Amino acid sequence: MKISSKGRYGLRAMVDLALNANDGHVALYSIAERQGISLNYLEQVFSALKKAGLVRSIKGAQGGYVLGESPANLKVGTILRALEGQLSVVDERTENREASDIGIQYCIKVNVWDKMNECINSLVDSITLEDLVENHKKMIGTTSSMYYI
Predict the structure, then answer these.
(1) For 3-13, what is each residue's pLDDT tens digit?
(2) Which CATH number fits domain 5-89+128-140: 3.30.750.24, 3.10.580.10, 1.10.10.10, 3.20.20.80?
(3) Which residues of 47-63 are buried (b: 16+ CB within 10 A; e: fewer)?
């Protein structure tokens, strides 16, 4: 399995949107500029995200996008599946279906491919958009610490 640029850029754009929304909307061109992504390509990505209900658009001169729900409720897996389809290491439709190999194929499917898929899906479904935002803030040193006196 390889995540396409649509998935990679889409996830980056969603983190950017979550970071910069500040209880308001964010213009797509500003995300494109900050992330170094073509505006036309980002429009296609956001069309898929909007169709999946992960973002909402606000029309008008001061329009833009807002998250469809709280970053704490948006899983990385949900975002990637909206952009990539099912996350699977092997496309079983392209597997060789020769009768002599069917037993071996099934054995490999159950013991390798299915287990890899389970691990990948478990991982991406355990990370929220909020987790990525918080980790990004920590990495660049912008988390606010509370001090008590």
Answers:
(1) 999 999 999 99
(2) 1.10.10.10
(3) ebbeeeebbeeeeeeee
